[in-house]
Design a protein that fits this description.
Length: about 240
C-alpha cells in the first residue's frame, strides 16, 4: 500500500487459520492500522491481492466484506454517542442482518428489535445490561470499548479484527475488556493489533511483528519478542553494541 513515495505496507504475505487468535505488534508507523484498513476495504492496495475463504475480495467495499463475515473495531471508538447502549447494539444488529430502504424506516424498525434474543444475550455477555439505557456519550472509555466489541460481534462475523482494543484504558477497564475478549476465543477468527501485547499473550496463538511496513518476525509470543530484529527495531536494543561493550 503506497501513499505517494511512502510504502506503508510492503510485500506482506500473511495467512490466518479459522478460529485462530493472532496478534500484530509494531511501533507507531509500522503499518499495522494501514494493513487493517487494506484487509477491511477502507484502502484498496496499490499492489497484491486479498483472499477470504478462497475468494478474491481485493476490490470489495467495507459493507460487502461485512456481509461476507468480516468485522472490525477502531483505535478510536466508533459508536453513536447520541444513542443509548441498547440502541447502539440494536442498530449494529439491524444494519448487519436487515436491509432498510430509508433512514426513517431504519429507526422505526430498529425499535422492534430491542427485545431480540441476540441483543439481550449481547447485553449480558459483554456486561452492558446495567448501563443499557445510558447514552454512549456518558460511558467511560472501557464501557464504550466493550460496547464497540459487542456491536462488532453482533454482526456475527467469521473474522473479527480489533485495532488496539486496550488503547487509553485504565487497568480496571482493561480487565473488563479482556474478559469480554476471552469469551470470543474459539467462536471467531480474531486478529488483534495491540501495543499492550503482554495483556493478551495468554490467548494469542501466533504473533507477527511489523516494522516499516514489513513483517520482520512471526511465530510464538516469546519467540517473536526475542527475535534479534524485533529487539533492535521495537525494543531499541542494539545487541552488537552490548556485545562490543
Amino acid at each position: 500500500m503506497r501513499f505517494g513515495p511512502v510504502v506503508a505496507v510492503d510485500r506482506v504475505d500473511y495467512q490466518l487459520r479459522r478460529h485462530e487468535v493472532a496478534g500484530i505488534l509494531g511501533s507507531n508507523g509500522a503499518g499495522k492500522t494501514t494493513f487493517f484498513n487494506v484487509l477491511t476495504g477502507y484502502y484498496t492496495p496499490t499492489e497484491g491481492r486479498i483472499f477470504y475463504q478462497g475468494r478474491d475480495i481485493t476490490r470489495l467495499s467495507p459493507p460487502q466484506r461485512v456481509a461476507l463475515g468480516i468485522a472490525r473495531t477502531f483505535q478510536l471508538t466508533s459508536t453513536f454517542d447520541n444513542l443509548s447502549v441498547l440502541d447502539n447494539l440494536v442498530l449494529a444488529f439491524f444494519r448487519s442482518h436487515c436491509r432498510p430502504t430509508t433512514l426513517g424506516l431504519l429507526f422505526k424498525r430498529c425499535a422492534a428489535y430491542r427485545d431480540h434474543e441476540a441483543i439481550i444475550a449481547a447485553l449480558h455477555q459483554f456486561d452492558l445490561h446495567p448501563i443499557a439505557a445510558r447514552l454512549a456519550c456518558h460511558l467511560s472509555l472501557g464501557e464504550k470499548r466493550r460496547m464497540e466489541i459487542a456491536m462488532a460481534v453482533l454482526a456475527d462475523p467469521e473474522l473479527l479484527l480489533l485495532d488496539e482494543p486496550l488503547a487509553g484504558l485504565a487497568e480496571s477497564e482493561i480487565r473488563g475488556v479482556l474478559e469480554v475478549l476471552r469469551r470470543q476465543v474459539g467462536k471467531q477468527t480474531i486478529l488483534i493489533v495491540e501495543h499492550k501485547i503482554s495483556h493478551v499473550r495468554d490467548f494469542l496463538e501466533r504473533l507477527i511483528v511489523m516494522h516499516e511496513g514489513r513483517i520482520i518476525a512471526e511465530g510464538g509470543y516469546e519467540e517473536c519478542l526475542n527475535d534479534p530484529q524485533v529487539r533492535k527495531s521495537y525494543w531499541q536494543i542494539d545487541e552488537s553494541s552490548d556485545n562490543a561493550g
